[in-house]
Amino acid sequence: MFPLARFRVEQRSMSPVLEPGDYVLVNTWAYKFHPPQVGDLVVFTDPERPGRFLCKRIADVRGDGSYTVRGDNEAISRDSRIFGPVPRGRIVGKVWRAARGKRRRGT
């Protein structure tokens, strides 16, 4: 398995750090030897919508191994305040790099 995966940002919940149309490279091996840390930007499977992925920042690490995640744009973010803590098994990996995607005119 290759250690990097690419995902496209679709929502504004991580604005201004990530905008719709941006791409992130995710290190899928990042947490094999080290646990996630508060402040890490991670991609995980959406707990409420199978087949979809979310990108959020880890806000808290709990003793039971689950993680509270938040979007940087909290006013519009669907995150742990809505769906609760994210089990470690749902985390795909840590965002390693972000690249600006092509923007549509007027957005």
Describe this structure in words.
There is one protein chain. The chain has one helix at residues 80-83; strands spanning 4-8, 23-27, 41-45, 53-61, 66-70, 86-87, 91-99. The chain is mainly beta and 107 residues long. The termini are far apart.
Write the layout of secondary structure elements.
Blueprint: E1 4-8, E2 23-27, E3 41-45, E4 53-61, E5 66-70, H1 80-83, E6 86-87, E7 91-99
Antiparallel strand pairs: 1-2, 2-7, 3-4, 3-7, 4-5, 5-6
Tag the structure with descriptive keywords.
7 strands, single chain, Umud Fragment, subunit A, globular, mainly beta, seven-stranded antiparallel beta sheet, 107 residues
Characterize this entry briefly.
4% of the residues lie in helices and 37% in strands. By secondary structure, it is mainly beta.
For the record, give the distance between the C-alpha atoms at the N and C termini, rounded to a whole number. 36 Å
CATH superfamily: Umud Fragment, subunit A
Structural class: mainly beta
The CATH architecture can be named as Ribbon
What is the CATH C level class, in words? Mainly Beta
**What proportion strand?**
35-45%
- The tally of strands reads 7
The backbone outline, from C-alpha atoms, is globular
SSE pattern, N- to C-terminal: EEEEEHEE
Spans of at least 5 consecutive residues with low confidence: none
Number of helices: 1
The strand line-up of the biggest sheet is 1-2-7-3-4-5-6
> What is the gyration radius calculated from CA atoms?
13 Å
Sheet of most strands: 7 strands, antiparallel
Mean pLDDT: 91
The amount of helix comes to: under 10%
